[in-house]
Amino acid sequence: MDDFLFYTKLGLYHILDPKAYDHLLFLVALTLPYLYKQLRQLVVLVTVFMIGHTISLWAASAGIVRISATWIEFLIPITILLTALHVLYWNKTISAKSSAPFTLLALFFGVIHGLGFSNYFSMVFADKGIGLPLLYFTLGIEAAQTLIVVVVVFMNILLSHLGVSKRDRLLVGSSIIIGILVPILISSSSAL
After folding, report:
1. Phi, psi of 30 (to 5 degrees)
2. How far is residue 184 from each of residues 1, 8, 170, measured CA to CA in Å?
3. Which residues are CB-neighbours of 46 under 8 A, at least 6 positions away?
């Protein structure tokens, strides 16, 4: 039971930690266009992202994949930027058909984000193995992602009822995310 609580909390804090806000920005960017009506498509995207994240964590922890941390730290903000741009420019209407190509990108972006946490994850799990701890960690991540998605969808619904158009919501939300990313991108690109 102690392992379950420890690794589940670790997964929760991995997403909700204010210092590691890359997941938060990605999830907010991903969720911006959605209201309650499109929740099914959003759940698919978030779950696919989490699957990619889990697969890369497992592969890196098992020593199957090794990628430079510097490159991963550069690619993570790129994934967030591409998601914000997708939402801003290409995601005019949400439908199962229009989100299908982005589902594959969400999987790939999950792989990149998982690799960003793999070094720390490998140290934490060094003496435990990765089977059950990874499952518990993933449950914590999924709970945190669900919380973020619910909050953003609720805010979208609230803003919609207050008369804020979807276009304005996407424009302002994506612009804020892109504004936060610019210094991160400059910093991470100078480290390459």
Report:
1. -65, -35
2. 38, 28, 21
3. 27, 30, 31, 106, 145, 146, 149
